[in-house]
């Protein structure tokens, strides 16, 4: 059974950077797509960014383009979400998710329904 363990959240000030990590436990290889989502209090969950089976396939939400980078370490089976120039509106619980099913390219990494495994979520608070 695959498990995802997130780390790196916390309280930061506006303009700061933060790196979230997602350790993939219980999976023998790195054949999966990984997505990052967030949910702020009182709001629906939204896509932040994702990376496909191939690290060359990456996509970011419009408000995160230029401010975040997703990477993956296939050797250690981890993924990271590097966020820069954080804003108070980035405050949310952040979730990593993994899809081990090799789907057609038409299924984008932003599709929440495709992800089979989800992390427990980690809080990010950005103060103004």
Number of helices: 0
Order of SSEs, N→C?
EEEEEEEEEEE
Q: What does the radius of gyration come to? A: 14 Å
Percent of sequence in beta strands: over 45%
How far apart, in Å, are the first and last alpha carbons? 40 Å
Decide which structural class fits the backbone.
Answer: mainly beta
Roughly what percent helix? under 10%
How is the biggest beta sheet arranged?
Answer: 7 strands, mixed
Broad shape: globular
Unreliable segments of 5+ consecutive residues? none
Number of strands: 11
Give the averaged pLDDT, no decimals: 93
Q: Can you walk through the features of this model?
A:
By secondary structure, this protein is mostly beta strands. The chain is built from no helices and eleven strands. Strands 2, 4, 5, 6, 9, 10 and 11 form a seven-stranded mixed sheet that branches. The protein has a four-stranded antiparallel sheet with strand order 1-3-8-7, with no helix packed on it. It starts with a strand and ends with a strand.
Précis, in short:
This protein has 128 residues and is mainly beta. The chain has strands at 3-7, 10-13, 18-25, 33-39, 46-51, 58-60, 68-73, 78-83, 92-99, 117-118, 122-127.
List keywords for this structure.
128 residues, globular, mainly beta, four-stranded antiparallel β-sheet
Topology:
Blueprint: E1 3-7, E2 10-13, E3 18-25, E4 33-39, E5 46-51, E6 58-60, E7 68-73, E8 78-83, E9 92-99, E10 117-118, E11 122-127
Parallel strand pairs: 2-11
Antiparallel strand pairs: 1-3, 3-8, 4-5, 4-9, 5-6, 7-8, 9-10, 9-11
């Amino acid at each position: 059974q695959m498990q995802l363990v997130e780390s790196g959240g916390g309280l930061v000030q506006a303009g700061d950077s933060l790196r979230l990590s997602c350790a993939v436990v219980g999976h023998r290889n790195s054949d999966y797509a990984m997505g990052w989502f967030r949910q702020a209090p009182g709001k629906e969950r939204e896509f932040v960014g994702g990376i496909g089976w191939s690290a060359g396939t990456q996509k970011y939400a419009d408000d995160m383009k230029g401010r975040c980078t997703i990477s993956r370490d296939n050797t250690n089976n981890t993924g990271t979400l590097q966020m820069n120039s954080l804003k108070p509106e980035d405050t949310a619980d952040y979730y990593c998710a993994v899809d081990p099913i090799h789907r057609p390219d038409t299924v984008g990494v932003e599709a929440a329904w495709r992800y089979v495994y989800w992390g427990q979520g980690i809080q990010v608070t950005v103060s103004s």
